[in-house]
Write a structure and sequence with these properties.
Blueprint (H helix, E strand, L loop, with lengths): L3 E3 L8 H12 L6 E5 L9 E4 L5 H4 L4 E5 L16 H16 L5 E3 L5 H6 L7 H9 L6 E6 L2 E5 L6 H6 L3 H19 L5 E5 L14 H15 L3 E6 L15 E4 L2 H12 L4 E5 L5 E4 L16 H16 L4
Parallel strand pairs: 1-2, 1-5, 2-4, 3-4, 5-12, 7-10, 8-9, 8-10
Antiparallel strand pairs: 6-7, 6-11, 11-12
Helix pairs in contact: 1-10, 7-8
């Protein structure tokens, strides 16, 4: 199949370590991937400098294929440098270009250090928003976190909680849910997705006694979605909808702010969770953790989430016929 492209992420973080770990785990079985990074760094595994994605398959079983992009200054594990920002951003742009041109099956991104990029003038809150600019399809990109036990989608993502709640509208919930419903059908093979729409307040508002967002915002959105033929259910009390008894009754949980979605999935499966961006013209996945600066360079990084992200990207590519 066409290779996946893995970006370098924050050079001072654990990206290089987990990339090497993912290659060790996948070198025999695939999916094949090529890493955009500085090939002169110490990855602890054999590396092969390649000049194009098409060369990755021939060397993948024996060495980690790297599209060599030299960094401006040496990397110090755990200490991000603004001098690396341009290379981090360029790696994302190049990976997306390979995917949009059909030379790669999809993009898998290593974690970035947002504060470092912001200090260098990066205008986006995170990967999701930047990818929407590079490979959007006229709709806001949607972040879904997935593991074998649970899929979650936050309607609002990288913003302060007070701001997220203040700007929540039925239209936002409807637009997000439409994208999710279509993606589950196309990429995950779920013919009739079941969407569990979370409440916002304790006990889903208790009929308005603990807040009216369920009545004024969430219930109208659900009614519209159901009228369109989308199986939307709720509002569901957030304190019970993620239990082991509740999860089998839906295919994805639509949540209203970042932590409402990410706390349950990271609690259930921190190592196996994968970030999937919906609403793009390309496939993009990522591990569901950050740069882990505190353990970078110490040999402690667990590549499990990156391995899961690469495998899922390969599965999605196969379903889209891109393999």
């Amino acid at each position: 199949m066409k290779p996946l492209i893995l970006t370098m992420g924050e050079p001072a973080g654990i990206g290089a370590e987990i990339a090497a770990g993912a290659w060790r785990a996948l070198r025999a079985s695939g999916p094949c991937f090529a890493l955009i990074d500085d090939a002169g760094r110490d990855f602890g595994v054999p590396v092969a400098r390649i000049s194009a994605p098409e060369e990755a398959g021939a060397v993948f079983a024996e060495a980690l294929p790297i599209l060599h992009r030299p960094l401006a200054v040496p990397v110090v594990p755990g200490k991000p440098s603004p001098a690396h920002a341009a290379a981090v951003i360029a790696a994302i742009e190049e990976a997306v270009a390979f995917a949009t041109s059909g030379r790669a099956a999809g993009v898998v991104t290593n974690p970035i250090q947002k504060a470092s990029l912001t200090a260098a003038g990066f205008p986006h809150p995170g990967h999701t928003e930047f990818l929407g600019e590079l490979a959007g399809m006229g709709v806001p990109p949607v972040m879904m976190l997935a593991c074998p036990e649970l899929r979650v989608v936050p309607v609002t993502v990288h913003e302060a909680l007070a701001k997220a709640i203040a700007r929540l509208t039925p239209e936002m919930i409807i637009a997000t849910s439409r994208i999710v419903d279509a993606a589950l059908k196309r990429d995950f093979g779920i013919a009739a997705p079941r969407l569990a729409i979370a409440g916002l307040n304790p006990h889903a508002g208790e009929a308005g006694t603990m807040g009216r967002e369920e009545i004024d915002i969430i219930a109208p959105a659900i009614a519209t979605l159901r009228a369109e033929g989308i199986d939307a259910r709720g509002p569901m009390p957030p304190d019970t909808m993620f239990t082991a008894l509740a999860r089998p009754h839906y295919d994805v949980a639509i949540c209203h702010y970042h932590d409402q979605a990410l706390i349950p999935i990271k609690t259930i499966d921190m190592a196996g969770g994968v970030n999937v961006t919906l609403g793009l013209s390309i496939i993009r996945t990522s591990p569901d953790h950050g740069t882990a600066l505190d353990i970078a360079g110490k040999g402690l990084a667990d590549p499990a989430s990156l391995i899961a992200a690469i495998r899922l990207a390969g599965e999605l590519a196969a379903k889209r016929g891109l393999a």
